[in-house]
């Protein structure tokens, strides 16, 4: 008897979709139609815990072993015939953006779960263990920056690095994490880091399934994106400090108007980041003005800068120039530039994208290689073990919004590709 072909893995589309929709109820945002309902599930919130408990209940019925680490990363382990072999790791995150969709992150966790269940349902014993992971705080929506769980796991920062980070209610990350760990005190603990699992070995490979969050796959009529790497990001906060004045009485020549200097700074940054090839991404997405009154000259203006590029040299050079360009642009106020987050571009070890490509081809799925424009946990996990990602199409490229949508059939295709990839890696 030949080994069963990957097409034989019994991924159950209806079960998979039903689980996704049950998760979408936890933090549901009502929408104009059933296809436009969103999710608001902040990390380490009671809703986040409810979602984790639901997943843990399902894991119990399937027979996976649960453990968590000191930053709340959740692991569900399918044992291998060689329990000491380096495990194959697959998952994503369960938190959402405040006005987020039903698929970003959570699909990658449930896809890994369904893939493992399909392998078990097929009666296949894998040589390597397979672990499903849900990383803590990928989105950075409640506590910035994102990807804290995977960064701490990969040893890039200790969990204590974010102790003082606060959410808008003034709760610190440390308080939220301690509360969360107390609520999950009944769950077995594992040591933080790549060798913290029962195998005591760093993962053999990591595969993250995720919606594309961009328009390419849909536009090209494809099923699968084989992700070759992730562009780098640098985030800054620029603060312009001037002097408040009455809008009716203060002559313009005597003002230190923070808004006017902010406009000069942003205009100069537009020139700095101009890229005729349209590869560089420069965004000012958040602006705060104080006192934010229509008849008062602002004394403070604060804005965010999000800079991304797949080439580390360009990312470093343009990012390093930001402070100088801002200082040269402001005319009447003082400016400070602070870097809040920094992730270098990642090129995935070719072994994982090649395994994804083989899996997609064996299932007759239409696939192409692409780089991820958004950052993901795989960026940090990739510094520890060979990693890669599987994208499925996002309707109109929309994400971080209730209109985010991928059909049940498209998700099931991605999960079949993931299952075949995990099986391939777990038998090697
Ligand atoms: Zn995500």
Automatic annotation (TrEMBL):
Taxonomic placement: Bacteria, Pseudomonadati, Pseudomonadota, Alphaproteobacteria, Acetobacterales
Family that this chain belongs to: Belongs to the peptidase M20 family.
Stored InterPro entries: Amidase_Cbmase, Bact_exopeptidase_dim_dom, Peptidase_M20, Peptidase_M20_dimer
Keywords assigned by UniProt, alphabetized: Hydrolase
UniProt domain Peptidase M20 dimerisation: residue ranges: 229-321
Pfam families named in the record: M20_dimer (PF07687), Peptidase_M20 (PF01546)
Descriptive protein name: M20 family metallo-hydrolase
PANTHER family attached to this UniProt entry: ALLANTOATE AMIDOHYDROLASE, ALLANTOATE DEIMINASE-RELATED
Keyword presence, Hydrolase: yes
């Amino acid at each position: 008897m030949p080994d069963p072909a990957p097409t034989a893995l019994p991924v159950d589309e209806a079960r998979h979709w039903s689980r996704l929709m049950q998760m979408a109820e936890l933090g549901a945002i009502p929408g104009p139609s059933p296809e436009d309902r969103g999710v608001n599930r902040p990390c380490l919130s009671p809703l986040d815990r409810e979602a984790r408990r639901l997943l843990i209940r399902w894991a119990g019925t399937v027979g996976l072993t649960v453990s968590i680490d000191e930053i709340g990363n959740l692991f569900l382990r399918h044992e291998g015939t060689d329990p000491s072999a380096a495990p194959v790791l697959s998952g994503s995150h369960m938190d959402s953006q405040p006005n987020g969709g039903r698929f970003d992150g959570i699909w990658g966790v449930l896809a890994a779960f369904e893939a493992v269940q399909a392998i078990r349902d097929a009666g296949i014993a894998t040589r390597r263990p397979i672990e499903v992971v849900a990383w803590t705080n990928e989105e950075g929506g409640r506590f910035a920056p994102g990807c804290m769980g995977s960064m701490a796991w990969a040893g890039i920062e200790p969990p204590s690095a974010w102790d003082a980070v606060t959410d808008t209610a003034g709760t610190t990350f440390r308080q939220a994490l301690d509360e969360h760990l107390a609520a999950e005190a009944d769950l077995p603990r594992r040591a933080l880091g790549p060798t913290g699992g029962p195998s005591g070995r760093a993962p053999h490979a990591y595969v993250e399934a995720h919606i594309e969050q961009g328009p390419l796959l849909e536009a090209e009529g494809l099923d699968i994106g084989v992700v070759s790497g992730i562009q780098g990001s640098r985030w800054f906060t620029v603060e312009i400090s001037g002097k408040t004045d009455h809008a009716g009485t203060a002559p313009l020549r005597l003002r230190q108007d923070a808004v006017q200097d902010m406009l000069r700074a942003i205009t100069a940054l537009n020139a700095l980041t101009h890229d005729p090839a349209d590869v560089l991404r420069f965004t000012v997405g958040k602006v705060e003005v104080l006192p934010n009154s229509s008849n008062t000259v602002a004394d403070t203006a604060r804005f965010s800068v999000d800079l991304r590029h797949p080439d580390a040299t360009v990312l470093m050079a343009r990012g390093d120039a930001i402070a100088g360009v801002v200082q040269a642009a402001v005319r009447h106020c003082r400016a400070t530039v602070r870097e809040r987050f920094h992730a270098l571009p990642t090129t995935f070890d070719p072994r994982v994208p090649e395994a994804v490509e083989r899996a997609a081809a064996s299932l007759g799925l239409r696939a192409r290689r692409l780089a991820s424009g958004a950052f993901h946990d795989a960026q940090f996990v990739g510094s520890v073990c060979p990693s890669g990602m599987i994208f499925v199409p996002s309707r109109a490229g929309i994400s971080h919004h209730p209109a985010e949508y991928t059909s049940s059939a498209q998700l099931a295709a991605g999960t079949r590709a993931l299952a075949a990839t995990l099986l391939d890696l777990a038998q090697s």
